[in-house]
UniProtKB/TrEMBL annotation:
<dbReference type="InterPro" id="IPR011057">
    <property type="entry name" value="Mss4-like_sf"/>
</dbReference>
<dbReference type="InterPro" id="IPR028427">
    <property type="entry name" value="Met_Sox_Rdtase_MsrB"/>
</dbReference>
<protein>
    <recommendedName>
        <fullName>Peptide methionine sulfoxide reductase MsrB</fullName>
        <ecNumber>1.8.4.12</ecNumber>
    </recommendedName>
</protein>
<comment type="similarity">
    <text>Belongs to the MsrB Met sulfoxide reductase family.</text>
</comment>
<feature type="binding site">
    <location>
        <position position="101"/>
    </location>
    <ligand>
        <name>Zn(2+)</name>
    </ligand>
</feature>
<feature type="active site" description="Nucleophile">
    <location>
        <position position="124"/>
    </location>
</feature>
<dbReference type="GO" id="GO:0006979">
    <property type="term" value="P:response to oxidative stress"/>
</dbReference>
<feature type="binding site">
    <location>
        <position position="55"/>
    </location>
    <ligand>
        <name>Zn(2+)</name>
    </ligand>
</feature>
<dbReference type="GO" id="GO:0005737">
    <property type="term" value="C:cytoplasm"/>
</dbReference>
<dbReference type="GO" id="GO:0033743">
    <property type="term" value="F:peptide-methionine (R)-S-oxide reductase activity"/>
</dbReference>
<feature type="binding site">
    <location>
        <position position="52"/>
    </location>
    <ligand>
        <name>Zn(2+)</name>
    </ligand>
</feature>
<keyword id="KW-0479">Metal-binding</keyword>
<dbReference type="GO" id="GO:0008270">
    <property type="term" value="F:zinc ion binding"/>
</dbReference>
<keyword id="KW-0862">Zinc</keyword>
<keyword id="KW-0560">Oxidoreductase</keyword>
<dbReference type="Pfam" id="PF01641">
    <property type="entry name" value="SelR"/>
</dbReference>
<dbReference type="GO" id="GO:0030091">
    <property type="term" value="P:protein repair"/>
</dbReference>
Length: 136
């Protein structure tokens, strides 16, 4: 059986700044967020795949996307358990679960326990942290 392990992506801040737009860098490398209803994909429901803007690792499939009414793209599960990693986030006077890309550690958003079946989860993701590839 072939080894399908993907090497983790590590770059310097200078390399990330060269690759990303200022907004993408602020969100993915500095744990920023976009204002609700302003980023890409919050109101898009095309069929395809959402991948990490930093390393192109697959993150979410469009068939797991739903309209949570929160102003950010929302999904009920990632493409695989390894696609994202979870971290405790106690910033801004609250405790949340931060979601990062499992491949390059890019900040994506947060996950909340108020999503639809079958998982009951809502992965609330910054649109600027992803790129979308339509299904052909």
């Amino acid at each position: 059986m072939a080894d399908t392990t993907i090497a983790k992506v590590h770059k310097t801040d200078a390399e990330w700044k060269e690759q990303l737009t200022p907004e993408q860098y602020r969100i993915t490398r500095q744990q920023g967020t976009e204002r609700a209803f302003t980023g890409p994909y919050w109101d898009s429901f095309e069929t395809g795949l959402y991948s990490c803007v930093c390393c192109d690792a697959p993150l979410f499939r469009s068939d797991t996307k739903f309209d949570a009414g929160c102003g950010w793209p929302s999904y009920f599960e990632p493409v695989s358990p390894e696609a994202v990693t979870e971290y405790r986030d106690s910033s801004h006077g609250m405790v949340r679960t931060e979601i990062r890309c499992g491949n390059c550690d890019a900040h994506l958003g947060h996950v909340f326990p108020d999503g639809p079946p079958p998982t009951g989860l809502r992965y609330c993701i910054n649109g600027h942290s992803m790129v979308f590839t339509p299904e052909k």
